[in-house]
Each structure stands twice: as C-alpha cells, then as structure tokens.
Amino acid sequence: MPTENRILIVDDDDRVRRILSRYLSREGYVVDEAASGEQMRARLAEHSVDLVILDLMLPDTDGLSLARELRRSSEVAIIMLTGKVDPVDRVVGLELGADDYVTKPFDQRELLARVRTVLRRASARETPAEHGWSSARFAGWTLDLVAQVLTSPNGKALDLTSAQFQLISTLALHADRSLSRNEIMQSVSGRSWNPTERGVDVMIAKLRKKLEKDPKAPSLIKTVRGLGYTLAARVELS
To answer: Between 20 and 30 A from 114 (CA), which of 82, 103, 179, 215?
Structure first.
C-alpha cells in the first residue's frame, strides 16, 4: 500500500471527483478535492500534496494555465485529465511540466497505475546534472545542467519550458548518436509514446524556433529519416 501520499483532484465534475476520491482512498492515498482553480490554490495553501490530478477544463480557468502556475513554484507531480485526444494538446501539457495525461473516459485501474508510476518517478526524479556533468557547450551555446539554463552564443538566456530544457539536454547528452522519438519522449516525460504520433515532432518544431536561425532548414537539431533526431554539433561536457 502507498505510504500516505497526498493527492489533490481538481475537477469541476462532482461525480468524477467522488469516484476518484473513493477509489484512491481505498488504495491508501490521502485525497483532497477542488472544483476550481481558486479552490485548488486554497487547498494547496492548507498543506502540500504529492500529486495533482488536474482536469483540462475548469469553470474559472483552464488546466494548462494551472499546470504552468504550479510548475513555476513547485515540482509537485501533475497528471492531466482531459477529454481531448489531439496529441498536440497532450504535448502542450507535457511542455508545461505535466508528468502524464489520462483521457476521459478512463479505466480506474489504468489511472491507478499511472498514479503509482508518476509518484514513484517523482520520488526519484533525475536531473541531467545527475549524469555527472554540470554543463554542455555546442556551437556557441551553453547548457547549464545545474541551473537548467540555456544561453545563446550572444549571451542571452532562452526562455524554455521544463520539457524543452529536458529535450535539448537529452539531445546534448546523447549527441554521439541519433535518438528515436520514443527514446526522446521517455527521457522528457518518463513514459513511452507511440512513435507514429506527432507529439515529439511538435516539441522539436517549437524548440527549433528558439534555437535555429532558419527553423525550416535546421542546422543544429537534425531529422534522422525513419528514426528520430540528433544534435548535429560537437558537444563539450564538463
């Protein structure tokens, strides 16, 4: 049984909250509920939680905005609960720092498995610096793996999402080979991803817009036909 992990369910559907709360409580979790972003903030002000199950659509705001808000000040684990199936929507959530997503309608046992996996991963969360390196330099760029900052050749720190930083770090730390889409998604989100989906491609496209002089003719992040992507630059690790 879990060891008193506290979960906050944020969903405006009373039935969904009630079902999830009862089910997760029976599995040994301490469960709180919130029906809006305002209630979520109030619950978090009362005590910390280990995981937020966050609905994408709420009456006073949207789940993506709340995920962004949470990630600015906390490393709390986040599972997005969504009725949307577009992989682009899922990627946006991951880019904002969500750990996983579950599509409605969902199987309670599958959700429980996701909850256990995300909490286990969060308790042993690994940062790029834990590979033994503190920085990586390539093509004039400097990647600070400790402070999690990417600095351009002209000395400007780029505004990257958590997922984008993990993405460029993964490419830099494995610059000696090409990475499949599934390997990239495993590194960024900790879970497998169907390589036929567009999710990784969307993330790469957004990162290219921030790094490449011409995103349509990239010179740094190269596509490897039939496989995935590689960082086409000599990387110096220190």
So the answer is: 179
Cα separation of 1 and 211, whole Å?
45
**CATH label, 128-237, candidates 3.40.50.970, 3.30.390.50, 1.10.10.10, 1.10.340.30:** 1.10.10.10
Q: How far apart are CA 209 and CA 161, in angstroms?
A: 13
pLDDT band at 195 (very low <50, low <70, confident <90, very high): very low
Strands 179-180 and 228-231 come out as antiparallel
Question: b/e map of 209-227 (b: 16 or more CB within 10 Å)?
Answer: eebeeeeeebebbeeeeee
Per-residue pLDDT tens for 16-32? 999 999 999 999 999 99
Q: How far apart are CA 43 and CA 64, in angstroms?
A: 18
Q: Can you tell me the distance from the alpha carbon of 10 to that of 181, in angstroms, rounded to the nearest whole number? A: 31
